[in-house]
Amino acid sequence: MTRLIIFDLDGTLLDTIDDLAAACNHALTACGCPTRERDEYFMLVGRGIDNLFRGALPEDRRSSAMVDRMRSFFLPYYNEHSCDLTRPYEGITEMLDRLEAAGIRFAVASNKYQAGTEALIDRFFGKYGFVSILGQREGKPIKPDPQIVLEAMEGVPGISKEEVVYCGDSDVDMLTGINAGVRTIGVTWGFRTRDELLAHNPWLLAENPGEICEAILQDMK
Question: Which pick of 95, 121, 142, 200 has the fewest CB atoms within 10 Å?
């Protein structure tokens, strides 16, 4: 029986790719580097902000100093423009409404930096009372390390791993759930491919949010 769903954020609950691409291209330009095409960012995002910068920078400029410089331009711009084009995927709010009505609790475990994660959840999903909102934080490992899932579970005292599902759109998310010992749901509307998700044998591969509802509600019977 499922009591808690832990969601990835970018590519799972929210379509953030345009705002992420714009902010990263702003930082690249400010650093005197060529920009990337929007579609390149589908593979660049999802592994934490520093890895985003390393992947976006030209190969010969991927130094720690340049990553720090990218961050100094990216963060102020993204904090101001993170909701310009970002929106929940179709059917997400309806899914959350149905699951909340059934007594399911929600959490977020993201590789997006903590302040950005909190801001987007507050902006788009504040009414749902997520029990944990966790992003990338100083001194904490990023996904696919399972620590973030185990920490999110602390928001529901006494919960067991059998009562938890981790839901995301990438191999990083599937591995996070596997490493934490919980079931996984792969979503096909996000930033990565069906094949990438299927390679990790998710408990459910969802084509739309309604399929998540049906699977979770069936699991509660």
Answer: 200
CA distance 4 to 115: 23
User: How far apart, in whole angstroms, are the C-alpha atoms of residue 4 and residue 48?
Assistant: 24
Long-range contacts, stretch 197-206, CB < 8 angstroms, 24+ apart: 197/169, 197/170, 197/171, 199/171, 199/174, 200/171, 200/174, 200/175, 202/174, 202/177, 203/165, 206/167
Instruction: Judge contact between 176 and 144, C-beta under 8 A.
Output: yes
| In the predicted structure, residue 113 carries a pLDDT above the cut 80 | yes
pTM: 0.94
Q: Give the mean pLDDT of the chain.
A: 96
Structural domains in the chain, CATH included, are 4-15+87-219 (3.40.50.1000), 17-81 (1.10.150)
